[in-house]
Every structure is written in C-alpha cells, then in structure tokens.
Automatic annotation (TrEMBL):
Family listed: Belongs to the Gfa family.
Annotated organism of origin: Massilia agri
Higher taxonomy: Bacteria, Pseudomonadati, Pseudomonadota, Betaproteobacteria, Burkholderiales
SUPFAM superfamilies assigned to the protein according to its UniProt record, in alphabetical order: Mss4-like
Record-annotated membrane-spanning stretches: none
Keyword match Nucleotidyltransferase: no
Signal peptide: none
UniProt keyword annotation of Metal-binding present: yes
Ranges where the CENP-V/GFA domain occurs: 4-113
One of the Pfam families matching this protein, by short name: GFA
Keywords, sorted A to Z: Lyase, Metal-binding, Zinc
InterPro entries xrefs: CENP-V/GFA, Mss4-like_sf
Superkingdom to which the source organism belongs: Bacteria
Protein name: GFA family protein
C-alpha cells in the first residue's frame, strides 16, 4: 500500500492517504473553475482513513443535486487541498496538483464537459459527461 502526501502551497496544511486512488476525475463546472482559478479541477478519490496535519478553514457549497461539498483550504496561503461530500462517507477527495507528482495517474472521467473550454483537450480514453452523472 502506497502512502501519498499532498500539501498546500505554503506547506502548513497536509493530507496523507494510505492507498491508491479509487479514481481520478476532472470537473469543468463553473463553481470548480472559480474555486481553483483554473479552467477545471482535477481530484482523486481515496478510501478512508486519511490524516490531516495543520489548520484548515472549511467552505460548504451545495451542488446541483443538493449534496454538500465541504472544501478544506489553508487559511495562510488559500490552497484548496481536499474535500468531502455529505452523501459519501467512505472517501476523501484530494486536489491532484497538491501531490506535486507529474507521474500521478491520469483522469478516467470528465464531468460538466458541457462547460469545458474548447481548447482543453482530454487525454485519450477519458469518459466525458455533459453534467455530473451521479
């Protein structure tokens, strides 16, 4: 079992997971674009348990289907490091870029592809959904 550590930009907030990701996805919804300041968010879902060190501030956003997304970000540098979802109690979702690992597995799915910027090209084999299929 591989242990991976992701951290915020200043290193104050860290999350450690002790498993391979259940899946990797990218989201092009407008909320993720605003939250990340990028044109999409890349996240990896990991099974429990996980360990957090440092202080975080939480922000709750309600998704289209009514689920609460609880985003944890560093109060020092502002990096959104991970999130949980109200209707998912056995998984944590970590920002892929926070692992600072260019060899991290590629995404398998792309959600809210209807909001994808036309110049963003998906890797081969990625399953795309116009909205969130869940």
């Amino acid at each position: 079992m591989e242990t991976r550590t992701a951290s915020c930009g200043c290193g104050q907030l860290r999350i450690e997971v002790a498993a391979e990701p259940n899946g990797v996805g990218i989201c092009h919804c407008l909320a993720c674009q605003r939250r990340t300041g990028s044109v999409f968010a890349a996240v990896a879902g990991f099974p429990l348990p996980y360990t957090v060190s440092g202080q975080s501030t939480a922000y709750v956003r309600t998704g289209d289907a009514g689920c609460g997304f609880v985003y944890h970000f560093c109060p020092v540098c502002g990096t959104t490091l991970f999130h949980t979802e109200d209707d998912v109690d056995d998984e944590v979702f970590v920002a892929v870029g926070a692992f600072a690992d260019p060899g991290f597995p590629a995404p398998q799915i792309s959600v809210y592809d209807s909001r994808r910027h036309p110049w963003v090209q998906l890797p081969p084999g990625v399953q795309a959904f116009a909205r969130d299929p869940s």
